[in-house]
């Protein structure tokens, strides 16, 4: 009697409870949300026109970089009076450099050696400051090419002789100026000479669109 009653209760529960079915609208909505999420995570293929615009932008950047360098090269070797008998000058070593400017580069190198202990390239055992100032080719793994040398000189009113006060090295790359070496000779320190040299350098760089 008990077994028959349990059987009837089980059969009546199975007949009343039916498996739940997801409505058709909810299944469609769920499928659309999954498709949208997969599209968001899928990498988008760049169109040809967008790639072309990026190429044009890169060309514009390179053209702007060349114009900045050409502007800087226009003042190479030009003496620029900055204060009373002080002269600021931008130099760069190359194959056609005159002996007059070569002498000034040697004076700038001597000023740097007065302020810094000589440092040797670990790969070539050459003087790093000399390679920077004279833009010398070497087999070193260090990138020391493309530097300019800035000098600040004092002119003697009696004989017109110019005495080296200080020097700095600068390199321009992608609109950014790098100044690794700045040297002021000991007898001219604490007179604001380094500030005069660097202020004129910053003004000239900003004039040609280099602001960092």
UniProtKB/TrEMBL annotation:
Pfam families: IDM1_C. Residues 116-212 form the Increased DNA methylation 1 C-terminal domain. GO terms for biological process: regulation of transcription by RNA polymerase II. InterPro entries: Acyl_CoA_acyltransferase (IPR016181), IDM1_C (IPR056511), PHF12 (IPR042163). GO terms for cellular component: nucleus. Residues 9-18, 34-47 have a biased composition (Polar residues). Its EC number is 2.3.1.48. The keyword Transferase applies. It comes from the Eukaryota. Residues 21-32 have a biased composition (Basic and acidic residues). Keywords: Acyltransferase, Transferase. Residues 1-55 are annotated as: Disordered. This is Putative histone acetyltransferase.
